[in-house]
Amino acid sequence: MTTLETQSWIHPQRVKSLSVLGLGLVLGLAARGADLLPAVATPPEPAAMKALFNGKDLTGWDGDPRLWSVKDGAIRGETSKEVAAKSNTFLILKDQNFANFDLRLSFRCNAANNSGIQYRSKHITEGNPSNAWVVRGYQHEIRNENKLPNVAGFVYDEGGNRGRICLAGEKATWENGKKTLLGVFLDGAGYEKLFKLDNWNDVVIIARGNHIQHFLNGTQILDFTDNDPKLVLKDGIIALQLHAGSPMWAEFKNIRIKDLGKD
Fold first, then answer.
1. Exposed/middle/buried for 198, CB within 10 Å: 0-12, 13-18, 19+?
2. H-type helices in 63-201, by residue range?
3. Backbone angles phi, psi at 192, to 5 degrees
4. DSSP string of the chain?
């Protein structure tokens, strides 16, 4: 995700450094005005999932070779003071485009920075991009934090203008330039119980048409319907992010997908 973010129901300014306390308070106020939704379990894994990572090397992927490697059967992205990411950079799954899909993987990272899983995204090669691996599109946020709202699982508009489109815990739609909150799946205490700090966490992303669902460790944490005819993303690439700024690392393993076809 980028330095500037939008909280459509908080304030038009897009400042990422808003305090956890302030955002958490607003989230709580919003939750009181929305229905508490029943817990939804992750659907059973479909048969014949396709592996996107062979567990041995980066065959089929493309990214900055200084930053990406394979360690102990996992993709590892890492920056340091000596080998920094001056702008957001990505490991891109090559020559594969997905519209409707069920994507599953596990991740872990440190808390020094944040990462992300891009889907229905585009590799930006025109207009003098900041590096050779710039990606725009929907992003499943990755963090090693458990205090709402700055946690793993929200949808971020990487490279776009909508910022945090739908937060972890929310069921929402987007139309007429803004988000409409329809309900909440869990509160702060529920997320803290669900997320595994400093450990592997399991992610499922299911996309069908303009409807997106995120699941974490067996439980649904997000339901988003993008009703904006100009901004909705219907298909695109998959990529993994290293964020500019503080040195960080992130790891991903067991990456697999079921192509659900096109509408």
1. exposed
2. 188-194
3. -60, -40
4. --SB--BTTTBS--BTT--HHHHHHHHHHHHHTSEEPPP-BPPPPPSSPEES--SSS-TTEE--TTTEEEETTEEEEE--SSS--SS-EEEEETT--BSEEEEEEEEEE-SSS-EEEEEEEEEE-SS--SSTTEEEEEEEEE-S--STTSSTT-EEEETSS--EEE-TTEEEEEETTEEEEEEES--HHHHHHH--TTS-EEEEEEEETTEEEEEETTEEEEEEEE--TTT----BEEEEEE-SSS--EEEEEEEEEEEEE--
Confidence of residue 263 (pLDDT cuts 50, 70, 90): confident
Per-residue pLDDT reduced to its tens digit, 241-262: 999 999 999 999 999 999 998 8
Rounded CA gap, 119 and 178, in Å?
Answer: 21
DSSP 246: S
Which residue would you say has higher pLDDT here, 20 or 114?
114
Domain ranges of the chain: 20-261
User: DSSP H helical segments within 84-147, as ranges?
Assistant: none
C-alpha–C-alpha distance, residues 58 and 35, integer Å: 44
Query: CA dist 137 to 7, 80, 205, Å?
Result: 17, 26, 14
Question: Mind listing the pLDDT tens digit for each residue in 169-186?
Answer: 999 999 999 999 999 999
- The string of DSSP codes covering 206-219 is EEETTEEEEEETTE
pLDDT tens string 142-171: 999 999 999 999 999 999 999 999 999 999
Q: Which CATH superfamily is domain 20-261 in?
A: Exo-inulinase; domain 1 (2.60.120.560)
